[in-house]
């Protein structure tokens, strides 16, 4: 199983998901770096993502939307803070409306992913940090934790199907 653990910590205002893969660190990094690979796993299987912008450098931004089974659209954006290939990515994550405009009504999330070799496998630790317990609970109730676990569960298949760049 790809996802090893998921831990919600209201005191630290974090949601941490740890996943492990049978692929080199550089190959796992590519699933974040390449927008065509990213959109094959970002979002639950029934809500595939489409990245319309992916400027994957520090200071760059990404825009995407996920399409639900009934054609619903859920938009999002990232402001990329740290992009240190192949081991560290930090970003600010937010929601957008149907026009791709950033939502001021929904909270933003600080995200950080660390990719490292552990015992011959690659471990990916993703930490989402929220502004308050209420924001953490709101997004978990909206399905963020389950959605991320389902999304990350698609990476193993992608690593096998798509050759390394």
UniProtKB/TrEMBL annotation:
<dbReference type="Pfam" id="PF08327">
    <property type="entry name" value="AHSA1"/>
</dbReference>
<comment type="similarity">
    <text>Belongs to the AHA1 family.</text>
</comment>
<dbReference type="InterPro" id="IPR013538">
    <property type="entry name" value="ASHA1/2-like_C"/>
</dbReference>
<dbReference type="InterPro" id="IPR023393">
    <property type="entry name" value="START-like_dom_sf"/>
</dbReference>
<protein>
    <submittedName>
        <fullName>Uncharacterized protein YndB with AHSA1/START domain</fullName>
    </submittedName>
</protein>
<feature type="domain" description="Activator of Hsp90 ATPase homologue 1/2-like C-terminal">
    <location>
        <begin position="22"/>
        <end position="159"/>
    </location>
</feature>
């Amino acid at each position: 199983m790809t996802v090893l653990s998921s831990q919600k910590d209201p005191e630290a205002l974090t949601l941490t998901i740890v996943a492990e893969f049978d692929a080199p660190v550089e190959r796992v990094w590519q699933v974040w770096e390449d927008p065509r690979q990213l959109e094959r796993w970002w979002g639950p299987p029934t809500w595939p993502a489409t990245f319309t912008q992916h400027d994957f450098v520090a200071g760059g931004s990404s825009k995407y939307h996920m399409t639900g089974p009934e054609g619903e659209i859920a938009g999002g954006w990232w402001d990329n803070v740290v992009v240190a290939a192949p081991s560290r990515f930090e970003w600010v994550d937010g929601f957008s409306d149907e026009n791709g405009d950033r939502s001021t009504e929904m909270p933003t999330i600080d995200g950080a992913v660390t990719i490292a070799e552990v015992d011959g496998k690659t471990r990916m630790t993703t930490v989402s940090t929220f502004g308050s317990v209420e924001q953490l609970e709101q997004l978990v109730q909206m399905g963020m934790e389950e959605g991320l676990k389902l999304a990350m569960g698609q990476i193993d298949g992608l690593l096998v199907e798509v050759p390394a760049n």
